[in-house]
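ok so heres the complex, two chains, lmk if somethin looks off
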Amino acid sequence: MSINLTILGCHSATPRVNAHPTSQFLDINNRTFLIDCGEGTQVQLRKYKLRFSKIQCIFISHLHGDHYYGLIGLISTFMLHKRSQELHIYGPKGLKEVITLQLKLSKTWINFGLFFHELTSKSSEIIYEDDKVEVHTIPLKHRVYTNGFLFKEKEGDRKLNMAKIIKYDEIERCDYRNLQLGKDFKNSDGSLVNNQILTFAPNPAKSYAFCSDTMYTESIVPIIKNCDLLYHETTFLKDKNTLAKTTMHSTALQAGSIAKAANVKKLIIGHFSSRYTNLNDFKQEAQEVFENTELASAGKEFVV
Amino acid sequence: MSINLTILGCHSATPRVNAHPTSQFLDINNRTFLIDCGEGTQVQLRKYKLRFSKIQCIFISHLHGDHYYGLIGLISTFMLHKRSQELHIYGPKGLKEVITLQLKLSKTWINFGLFFHELTSKSSEIIYEDDKVEVHTIPLKHRVYTNGFLFKEKEGDRKLNMAKIIKYDEIERCDYRNLQLGKDFKNSDGSLVNNQILTFAPNPAKSYAFCSDTMYTESIVPIIKNCDLLYHETTFLKDKNTLAKTTMHSTALQAGSIAKAANVKKLIIGHFSSRYTNLNDFKQEAQEVFENTELASAGKEFVV
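and the predicted structre for the whole thing:
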């Protein structure tokens, strides 16, 4: 069980030579996801040699260009690469229309299953679930309908305590699976051995919360509470507090405050405005309230 | 009078780390145009420090992604940069719908005049004309409706032959403009001095023809006849002649043949398929029939 996050772009607004718009490549419990897909994302995926053909689901936070203008190009590339695996796209209503219109205009027939899951709910909901991972929306407050996403591992199997198990002659190899699933062991005389004697707790399930774009809103705190890793946008420093409010973005101080209130283990900040040249100012400001803060940068990897 | 062309991208299909899709920045007689706009074009414009705020018109050949997926991002950037100058976009029907849909979804209000000129004609037509430049479509043969574009300077003023003019006492400075416009000079006794005695012919009007994507078609030859500079796609080498035909692209040999038949002064080739690693093979093949051939490459400038 592990979470492996690679930042592909972490700058706001317009793509520049060394400043790429939002996108992240996430490997969680052997599921491969892409979060947001600004213009140029497919080149960033190639640059960092990420196996992007493995992407199973793409999660789009909102329909501002710096978060999704690279999506149609990536889908076209999948098509040219003769992808056969299904691709599931989660994002705001409208995304399907804009992608299918462009495919229609180019007379492109997609040769793999392309499924859109359009989001409209204003409350947090589970939008993806399998036996190992679940994904919840985090309703954010921005100028258009926007969601963050909480990626949670599911708790794995309990781990066998072999030192104890071998003391019970009646327990055979074929019983191990039931023990891993948490069941007590039943002796031939009908008496029970409590599962917790025979097993250790599973590895703790990890979680990652992605929150961009959003103004400061404490409403997200209960959803992301205690998560291991939080990415929170910080477009501005606190000197631009009013501008942050008007444009519905956050300051570094606000991102730090959210991380603290939610008791997360680590905070990553990004979505920096191009007006700032020294990004360390963002880190320092967030650290005024939350020490374990790191700056996002293209190619940087975070492992939980 | 001059033509200054900068290649921004000249590779086919999917953008890669050092292979950018089609786009060209054209300065012709002080008019600034962009031709095609694949994903990442705005970053290329920045990389080569081209003053892209000056772009007056954008010409889109066809609606395959490698020729226009960067357009919506460029328009968004113009908006963020608070552009006020009008922008005119010439391209196939459908382009307006896809761009305006994306602007609507992002709740973006464009703060400058954005005009779409949608093309549907299958014959060559003049689509842009001012006092110095005209632009004609070049109907191409591809899998979707596609045009190339012929950019032609208009013939400038005749040039004053001062050595001759000073011999005529009656010609004053206020008469020069009429001489430049080709008018004969009328002496006070009513007799005429032929304009050609008093002036030299204007500098020759230059022309540039952009032809991508297209299969080999001699139908374009009369339109691009004798032009100074021709960009013709060559996606494949002649070893892939059948594939070129199926996908409605050209080989280097075919591009050379068109250049020769049209008697152009120089040929630039591009739109290379990613299957080829040695691009010089394209040059050599085209040169079998047309010697003055150059390879396009990102950042390369051609001056006429």
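quick notes: The first strand of chain A starts at residue 3 and ends at 9. thats all i got rn
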